[in-house]
Structure formats: C-alpha cells, structure tokens
C-alpha cells in the first residue's frame, strides 16, 4: 500500500447564511440570495475539488464543542435535521451523510498514542453540527465523498489560546500519521471565519446586502494582514501571531482548526490560493486553500 497523503487543505467558513442564500433542496428556509462574493468563491473551489482525486474529507469544526478530549464521528451514516441554534430562521437542513469510520478510527488511535484524551462518537442520534454541514455542502454539494468530523476541545476556555495551539498542533501531527498509514488521499477542511465580532441584531430581510459590512475597521486590518501572510506562504509566522490575532479580533481561530490543519500539512511555506473575502453579520470570512502540488497550485485572486 502506498503512503497516504493530504492533497488539499481548505479554510472554509461556515456562516449558515451562505447555505440559506443558495436555496438547496435540503434547506427549508427560502432566500433571495446574498453574500455572492463568498458563494462564488466557494463554487470555484468546489470546481477545483472536482478535478482532484481523493477518498475522504476530514473536517475540524468549532461547533462541535467537547470539554473532555477530542471526539471523532464513528458511525457509517448520520441522518437528521440540523438547525442553527442562533439562526433557526435561516438554517433547517436535512442531512444524510456518510463517514469514513476506518479513517476516523485510525486518527483516533494515533491521537490517543500522542497522549490526547479522545473518544469515538457512536450515538446514532447524535446531531451533526451546522459548521460541518455548511462547509461540506459548499465545498462538495453532491456529498459524494465520506467525511470525518473532528470536535473542538475547548482548551482555550479551560487554559489559554497558547495551550489550545499546542494541543491543536499535536492533534494535527497525529492525524497526519494516521492518514499516511491509511494509504488514502485526504482533503482537510478547517471550518471557521477569521475575525468574529458580529452584530447582535439582524436586518428585517437577512439577505439585504445594503446592511452588510465588517463590524469594525480594526477587524478588517487584522484580517487583511493574516490573508497577506497566507498569500506569501508565511504560515509559520501566522502560527506565531495566532494568540494575539485571536484575542484582538475574537477570531474563530480560537477553536484550533487552522493550527490543526497547518500542523498536519507540515506548516506550508508556499502561497495559499485565495477565493474570496466578505463579511457576514459583520464577521470576516476568507475562503482559501493550500495546494501542496506545485503543478496545480494557482494564483486565484
Ligand atoms: Fe461559527
């Protein structure tokens, strides 16, 4: 069996507004559109994914929060309705997804070996979080690949952003070992926004784009700084400033997803592909990917 590998790493924000704006048949709510910069960026990245040979999507989500250890989805199928607790008016999505249990178990095993508390989720009634569903739907609307979801252990709440980073690095390295041993080709997804201060009231029509803008200028400047570093392949520096960035912008990076993905990918020093940046209820959202293949890596935006 040849060595497994990570064929792409995607930063994939998950505001439920983006699924709402797409009006897929799985979602009950109806919209008149909105947030096209992000949706068109996602569509372009989804087209790239269709050209890549891979076996599974492994996604790290901030909205499956676990307070004792890191958990992995551990049954072959999960089917239910996912309702966003904050935006039930926008997101009531009927999902039916397949899990690569073999890969999840392999990552669970390597994670335990690295000394991290970890558990498989075997409850058939477990409701999959909207972060997983939104990012996976937008990256692969046909849902024709199995997924593995990894929970976010809230070390930043118990300890600090620094401890979260150390744990997320160890988790990423463990997942990489499991992927290599599996012989599979895997797409990693880090599901989150960048800056995350947001408005606390909603426009009467949520997709009214005349009401959408970044929450404040400082957030915008920080996001542009980080995206510039993505473009320049400065991921080591991004990891170094992550505690400060997360604190200053209340960024959703606090869940550990980006660090997990960068550690698994050996902290890339090549440029990221940028697919778009736009605000959703004032938060900063960037779609980006890290393509380890020199031949297919492009300058997108
Ligand atoms: Fe979120």
UniProtKB/TrEMBL annotation:
<keyword id="KW-0223">Dioxygenase</keyword>
<protein>
    <submittedName>
        <fullName>2-amino-5-chlorophenol 1,6-dioxygenase beta subunit (AmnB)</fullName>
    </submittedName>
</protein>
<dbReference type="GO" id="GO:0008198">
    <property type="term" value="F:ferrous iron binding"/>
</dbReference>
<dbReference type="Pfam" id="PF02900">
    <property type="entry name" value="LigB"/>
</dbReference>
<dbReference type="GO" id="GO:0016702">
    <property type="term" value="F:oxidoreductase activity, acting on single donors with incorporation of molecular oxygen, incorporation of two atoms of oxygen"/>
</dbReference>
<feature type="domain" description="Extradiol ring-cleavage dioxygenase class III enzyme subunit B">
    <location>
        <begin position="11"/>
        <end position="266"/>
    </location>
</feature>
<dbReference type="InterPro" id="IPR004183">
    <property type="entry name" value="Xdiol_dOase_suB"/>
</dbReference>
<keyword id="KW-0560">Oxidoreductase</keyword>
